[in-house]
Specification:
Elements lengths: L12 H17 L5 H31 L12 H33 L2 E3 L7 H15 L5 E4 L13 E11 L2 E11 L6 E3 L7 E5 H7 L1 H4 L4 E12 L13 H12 L4 E7 L4 H10 L7 E4 L9 H4 L26 H7 L2 E5 L5 H12 L3 E8 L6 H12 L3 E6 L7 H13 L3 E3 L6 E2 L3 E8 L2 E9 L11 E8 L2 H15 L11 E3 L3 H17 L5 E6 L5 H13 L2 E6 L16 E6 L4 E2 L3 E4 L6 E5 L5 H5 L1 E7 L3 H16 L5 E4 L5 E4 L10 H10 L31 E3 L1
Parallel strand pairs: 1-6, 8-9, 11-12, 12-13, 14-25, 17-22, 19-20, 20-21
Antiparallel strand pairs: 2-4, 3-4, 3-7, 5-6, 7-8, 10-17, 11-15, 15-16, 16-17, 18-25, 19-23, 21-26, 23-24, 24-25, 26-27, 27-28
Amino acid sequence: MTIRFEPAHFFNRELSWLEFNQRVLDEALDPANPLLERLKFFTIVSSNLDEFFEVRVAGLKQQIESEVVERSVDGRTATEIFQAVTQRVRRMVADQYACWRNELQPALAENGLNIFPMATLKRADFDYIEEYYHSKIRPVLTPLAIDPAHPFPQLLNKSLNLMVRLEMKKGRQTIKHTAVVQCPAILPRLLPLPRDGQQRNYVFLGQLVGHFLADLFPGTKILGYWPFRVTRNSELYIDEEETGNVLKAVETELHNRRKGDAVRLEIDQDCPEDLRLALLGTFKLTEEDLYLIDGPVNPTRLMALYQGDHSPELRDPPFVAPVARSLRGQKDLFAAIRERDILLHHPYENFNSVVEFLEQAAEDRDVLAIKMTLYRTGGDERIVGALMNAVNQGKQVTAVVELRARFDEANNIQWARRLEENGVHVVYGLVGYKIHAKVALVVRHERTQIRRYVHLSTGNYNPTTARLYTDIGLLTCHPDFGEDATNLFNLLTGICQFQGMRKFLVAPFDLHARLLALIQREATHAEKGLPARIIAKFNSLVEPELIEALYGASRAGVKIELIIRGVCCLRPGVPGLSENISVRSIVDRFLEHSRIYYFENACQAEVFVGSADWMPRNLFRRIETVFPIEDGNLRERLISEVLAVSLADTSRSRWLGPDGVYHRSQPVNNEPPRRSQPEFVALAAAEEPRTGGASRGRTKHPQVKLVNSPFGARPKTKKA
């Protein structure tokens, strides 16, 4: 049965995502941020937009071209969404490039980071670039003529290209030609010049190649050149029911991705109209898909200015995460976990503890088996090496590798093959579902019994992103958690039906229904006059049934506070619908990635942590695990530290209004602004004792209070 929703209750998903990207751009525009951090956010905006076009806009175009006409939950057709998205992106791109021209590039130059046009180079620098061109660049360039004998070349997704107009004399005639030069991705887009004191000087690759075009087309006159790139549909289309080998199918689709249908054309704004129209025709695009660029095409490559060990004064203060206090001085991690459950808050507490957990398991002679999920490995040698070492030590090792982790597919294929070659049993999960759960299980023989140690997390087993993303992890040997982890891996690797779990909530089987029940329970408590409250922190809120359930709870009197970094389709603060719901987003140095759900439950608080956002794909098309925090002290830490400090942020948080506009938070009563992430850094580094976990069984659901919450006294706001 199809459930009908009221369109006025929902924001559009694509437009909400674009507002998130605007909040990222706001960080680039904020002069209070260090200059290179502003540049980092500037490049992230472009990287985000690339993926948005490759996946979301590509999907909209496919809907428009299909014979099925339907409306989204907010009441728009695909064409209406596409038109709204195009208008919003154009405003964002204009603001982004104005930020580059008017703020970032001049400020970088003032601080000795210069990008010079070729015509302004000193003689010594030009000689260096000329030699570099002939020795390193010219051999890999291929000039491609466009004429009846030379059809338009197949250009790869997001590759940098130059559209060239030239003329050549043939007898008494002067004939005009067009050509394309593709700049291989292997070449750096910013070429450093020899150091000049404290200066760091660069030239753009596109300008360098453009300067030497006459060398590529000898005997011609170059009339002009214009950088451009095309973005293509990059979604993978795999029918797992029809393919006999998922690995081979993913590899094939990865090859096709590079040549998918075009969805966007970006080109230098000075390109003549006839060439622009010719390119649009070649790629089967319209002027709606054309973006004229007043600045560098593909700003993501400007990240080269950020990288390196230079200019510390232009960056955030350096940060090295300490070992979690509950693990300091603990050489035997298994003994530490037997003593108490251990909560890890990354990146503020070091992810090396998780890696060492796997390394100790590989070396420990009492460990019999290791099983874990791998979604985005990042190719970390220590994690993969620990699994392979465990095989060499005679242990049974199973890795459930998700090949379709978007834009990490090639990397995961490489590591899956290497694991298989070294004796790890590699499984690719369930047909029809992505494996997004974050679980590691270690089976250990201890005296007369088998004990199972489990690591659960909101983030990936990737030490690189663990330094950049905020995530929550749990190390436990609770028997119920071990049993659930065992049953989960049996489900992923064997042939069986889901039979329910003791503690875990697992998508796509029971997570959605359990969340609805938990929300309804709070509504029932509120109707009875009992304490009722919901606090949830995650990346995205899209699923309409959960949104409607939150509306129902709000009408019943439940106070609901949502911390949603990205997409939010719920409309907060609407009288009679959501007046008890607040939504805020935090965008700061680290990517807010942890998922925490708090239900007050009439003073018997329950807190869940897990891998799932509240989106249809997470709840119905992925394997996700959400688990309760049962240790009372750890639960109190999540409530009164992690959630409370996040809610109290008045520096990097924005409030969502019922009109869809985000507003910067402002402190109340002239209090100094609070910034949550530096507070978490300070909490992790502090030496004084802090609740880290009680010995198992000593605490049972204590009544705790959420401190420092601004709910009910919303800070004054200004538009972001």
